[in-house]
Amino acid sequence: MTKLKFLFSLRDQLSGLPEEELEERISFYSEMIEDRMEDGLSEEEAVAEIGSVEEVASQIISDIPLSKIALEKIQPKRQLKMWEILLLALGAPVWLPLLISAVAVIFSVYVVLWSVIISLWAVFGSVIACAFAGIVSGIGFMIGANGLTGAAMVAAGIVCAGLSIFLFYGCMAATNGTIRLAKILMLGIKKCFIRKVDTQ
Amino acid sequence: MDIQLKRGLLDVCVLAAIKNEDSYGYKIIKDMKPYIELSESTLYTILKRLEAANMLTVRTAEHGGRLRKYYRITNKGLKRIEDFQREWSEILSIYKFVTKEDNRHDEA
User: Fold this and answer.
1) Which residues contact A159 (CB under 8 A, 6 or more apart)?
2) Nearest chain B residue (CA) to A37
3) Of A74, A171, A174, B47, which one's alpha carbon is 20 to 30 angstroms from that of A39?
4) Could you report the per-residue pLDDT of A50-73, keeping only the tens digit for each?
5) How do strand B56-63 and strand B66-73 relate by DSSP bridges?
6) What residues have CB less than 8 Å from B63, skipping those under 6 apart?
7) 3-state secondary structure of A17
8) CA separation for the pair A156, A138 (Å, rounded)
9) Using one digit for the tens of pLDDT, what is the confidence trace for B58-104?
10) Do A29 and B68 touch (CB under 8 A)?
11) A60 exposed, middle or buried (CB, 10 Å; 0-12, 13-18, 19+)?
12) Closest CA to A32 of B9, B39, B100, B80
């Protein structure tokens, strides 16, 4: 890929970003490619070393906070005419609740994801508590001459302890998975904002 | 490597790359290559962060018919490197102690 094609493609993918940020990053990458070429690499090699357009675009997008991207999207690009302002104000009872519900939906998705994780850890916590309770009261029973019952309880407690070890690894895996999922979600949301500008 | 740890380390690495003389983007990556891999996007973020923290300054100069950004370390940046060296010489002596302890057990 040539340098111009790379930069053009990159600019296209990031077209929804704030102008200033965009220009600065494009010139940064342009400079990088030029420097590599000066070092002896061919244009193709220099561009290839930077990475694919998709990778670079995703990295840049995840770097910029969602607030900046959202703000840029809702800034009016030109002076609004009187009737447009009026229409916007009159239509508020319609689009404002919609906007609020959209934000609420995104928020609830996050809440749901994390409640699953919290409940998994709660199960882990209760299994540990059962293990502890089983062993302690079991010993108590054994001392109090309820030998068989006591032994059974201790055994149950040990089983719970073993279970909790499995649960621990399961919970850690689920937590890490959710963190990664949340990151992918955030990237997807940001990309939605950026994409929409193209269709206008 | 732990992500937070890596981020802090990369910051200091970049500062070290510009410690003795002004440097520019690609040269920083090249200088660091024998020690640690750095991608363009990561470097951009680090440079922006260091600039915001006043640990370096940026200037644009002409080079071979195009513009190039040069980065210069500030006193605050130099201090960051000193702090880093102090922290890590402590960690290094602890490391020596820990590995020495293991060696003695092997000999026994």
Assistant:
1) A131
2) B26
3) B47
4) 888 888 888 888 888 777 777 777
5) antiparallel
6) none
7) coil
8) 9
9) 999 998 888 889 999 999 999 999 999 999 999 999 999 888 866 65
10) no
11) buried
12) B39
CA A87 from chain centre, in angstroms, equals 35
* Helix, strand, coil percentages in chain B from 3-state DSSP, rounded to 5: 65, 15, 20
Question: Computed over its alpha carbons, how large is the radius of gyration of chain B?
Answer: 18
> Would you say B24 and B38 are in contact if contact means Cβ atoms under 8 Å apart?
no
Strand partners, B23: B71
Contact B68 A31 (CB under 8 A): yes
The pair phi, psi for residue B73, each rounded to 5°, is -75, 150
ipTM score of complex: 0.81
Closest residue to A28, CB basis, from B25, B27, B64: B25
Contact (CB<8Å) A60/B26: no
